Predict the structure.
Amino acid sequence: MNSRRLTRSPRRRVLVLQDALTLQHRQEIIDFTIQKRLPGIFVAKEWVQAGGLMSYGESLPDMYHRAAHFVDRILKGAKPADLPVEQVTKFELVLNLKTAKVIGLDVPPMLLARADEVIE
């Protein structure tokens, strides 16, 4: 979808999933959403720290901690096939109020109250 059509859409918001291509062009994507005044939601707080509006996704530090736990168990003799499969249990909501102001978006107080981190 080209940018002209996207910005003419009656539902003007963007959801960006993370992969090698979007990571490579992260700042360009964030700059585009700000330039076009599009509320963008991303999957990791690093996007919000770089200027994105908001993110909701798994806590990477928590996932790394859990991975270290499994490595520790394997190094102590556990068979990888015997270890349980785990689902992510901790998610983070991060908001960037500077970006919200730039794109002219009022963030509802209820959303602010639920955020794990707010960048002002």
Observations:
- The chain has a mean pLDDT of 89.
- DSSP finds seven helices and five strands in the chain.
